[in-house]
């Protein structure tokens, strides 16, 4: 099914007729890819005002939450890695250091009352990427990228919960947040992904032992099927016996890169099979023309703010996986190529004429992809990752401590009991009410999208 060769890649790109394309993109030309990525990034950064007077460094304005900013800065690390353009490096470093918070583990006081494990993981994974690509190190006296990733990992490993479902991380960190009773794939995927990558970077098997533990749990809990489809999550009140079977692009991606990394470290056939199985299972997120879509919400046009970000991560991690598991390269390339062309074609809206839309497909009879009248940071981010991922063969793979990685680590970072809310800033009733309302809004959005179940 996934044996499309590079020859048919040429054909499929040629057959994507895109006359109204506003962002020029020629995938055979490195400069063209970089230029398209630059245009999309510029559009994305128009939303960022955190570095202006009176604003908070590292935050995006409403309706974006803290994790969206972590997602965005992670992609800006990638942007520099792929293009060499340093324009946003300073803003990125400032944000990633400031939002690490006083405990340097992505548990900043302003966020903790509503922070989930997945939110923290997105910032931690941005730091991990920075270490792997030798993103310019923070100033002396500031925590290193590696230490920030380790801090995130360490604080999450402490939250492993064996009281229900035989293990797993809960979605929410604090009992008073709705979603505390939910063990979901993205939170556990974050720990898995970080564990595998920290093991590769540091050579310390403590991290890969954890990755194995998370994998075994996610498989045993039924959140990943025998065919490697990754479901959304399960409720602890039913001991995780009745998973929500909705599938999201980023859940597939987060496990794909972790498994590919585990294969790289171990060389085991078992991890190769798992990597291939996860790749196979991504077919639910691609149309026949190999263009990526968020199958659970795009066709119905009801993706919420979060869901508009997810495709960025599948694209990012598909590309990254090919660097650690080269057997994926020829399989993945046609899908990244077709998605990039279609994404660029969607970037033809707004007052600047290059605003990107949500859908990278057309429902008209001539199949011409045009802007679908939607816009936002998520739309820009997804297009950016889809486009710049096509430079993956031009860049080096992730560095490690032994191959030139220069990031400063700290084994014991972040394990100082931040999982205990009593040690944190006093949480008021108003905080609780705010957190509950937030969580209800988020859950309502998810439930709204749940009409779609796989199989
Ligand atoms: C904020 O960052 C953006 C993007 O890097 C940059 O264009 C802008 O000049 C910065 N503004 C300030 C006040 O530093
Ligand atoms: C927390 O919020 C306060 C008040 O808005 C702000 O001054 C501070 O910079 C914020 N800190 C972080 C890490 O976001
Ligand atoms: C909950 O699930 C775990 C893992 O499947 C199992 O070991 C445990 O016995 C279950 N607990 C209850 C109360 O059924
Ligand atoms: C992936 O799909 C290919 C082609 O359909 C199949 O041969 C292979 O067995 C699958 N691999 C796994 C691990 O499911
Ligand atoms: C295409 O999608 C738009 C918006 O989702 C909808 O209004 C329109 O009716 C659709 N057209 C066709 C031919 O399905
Ligand atoms: C593991 O990943 C590194 C970094 O990209 C790469 O250089 C190496 O070739 C990979 N190992 C294998 C066996 O593919
Ligand atoms: C690599 O890791 C070792 C052990 O943690 C450390 O002593 C050394 O400084 C690291 N090397 C670099 C380049 O960071
Ligand atoms: C490996 O990492 C663990 C967890 O951070 C740490 O406790 C241990 O000291 C490390 N081992 C080595 C050999 O660096």
Automatic annotation (TrEMBL):
This is Mannan endo-1,6-alpha-mannosidase. Keywords: Glycoprotein, Glycosidase, Hydrolase, Membrane, Signal, Transmembrane, Transmembrane helix. Its EC number is 3.2.1.101. Residues 404-413 have a biased composition (Low complexity). Residues 1-22 form the signal peptide. It comes from Aureobasidium melanogenum (strain CBS 110374) (Aureobasidium pullulans var. melanogenum). Pfam families: Glyco_hydro_76. The keyword Acetylation does not apply.
């Amino acid at each position: 099914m996934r044996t499309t060769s590079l020859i048919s890649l040429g054909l499929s790109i040629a057959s994507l007729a895109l006359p109204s394309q506003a962002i020029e993109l020629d995938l055979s030309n490195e400069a063209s890819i970089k230029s398209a990525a630059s245009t999309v990034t510029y559009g994305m950064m128009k939303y960022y005002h955190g570095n202006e007077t009176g604003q908070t460094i590292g935050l995006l304005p409403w309706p974006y939450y803290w994790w969206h900013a972590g997602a965005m800065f992670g992609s800006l690390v990638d942007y520099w890695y792929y293009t060499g353009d340093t324009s946003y490096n300073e803003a990125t470093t400032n944000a990633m250091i400031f939002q690490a918070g006083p405990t340097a583990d992505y548990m900043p006081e302003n966020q903790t009352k509503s922070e989930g494990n997945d939110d923290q993981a997105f910032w931690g994974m941005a730091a991990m990427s920075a270490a792997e690509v030798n993103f310019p190190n923070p100033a002396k006296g500031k925590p290193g990228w590696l230490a920030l990733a380790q801090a995130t990992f360490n604080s999450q490993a402490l939250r492993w919960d064996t009281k229900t479902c035989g293990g797993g991380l809960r979605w929410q960190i604090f009992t008073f947040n709705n979603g505390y009773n939910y063990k979901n794939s993205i939170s556990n995927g974050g720990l898995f992904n970080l564990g595998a990558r920290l093991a590769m970077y540091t050579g310390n098997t403590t991290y890969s032992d954890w990755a194995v533990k998370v994998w075994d749990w996610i498989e045993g809990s039924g959140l990943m099927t025998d065919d490697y489809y990754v479901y959304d999550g399960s409720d602890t009140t039913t001991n995780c016996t009745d998973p929500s079977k909705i599938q999201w692009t980023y859940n597939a991606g987060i496990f794909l890169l972790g498994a590919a990394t585990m294969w790289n470290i171990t060389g085991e056939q078992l991890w190769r099979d798992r990597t291939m199985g996860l790749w196979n299972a991504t077919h639910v997120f691609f149309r026949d023309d190999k263009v990526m879509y968020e199958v659970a919400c795009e066709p119905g046009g009801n993706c919420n703010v979060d869901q508009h970000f997810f495709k960025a991560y599948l694209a990012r991690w598909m590309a990254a996986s090919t660097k650690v598991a080269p057997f994926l390269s020829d399989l993945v390339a046609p899908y990244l190529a077709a998605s990039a062309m279609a994404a660029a074609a969607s970037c033809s809206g707004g007052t600047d004429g290059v605003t990107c839309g949500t859908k990278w497909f057309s429902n008209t009879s001539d199949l011409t992809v045009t802007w679908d009248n939607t816009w936002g940071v998520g739309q820009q981010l997804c297009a950016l990752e889809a486009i710049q991922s096509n430079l993956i063969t031009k860049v080096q793979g992730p560095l490690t401590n032994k191959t030139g990685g220069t990031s400063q680590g700290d084994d014991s970072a972040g394990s100082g009991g931040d999982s205990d809310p009593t040690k944190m800033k006093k949480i008021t009733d108003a905080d609780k009410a705010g957190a509950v309302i937030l969580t209800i809004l988020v859950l309502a959005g998810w439930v709204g999208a749940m009409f779609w179940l796989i199989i």
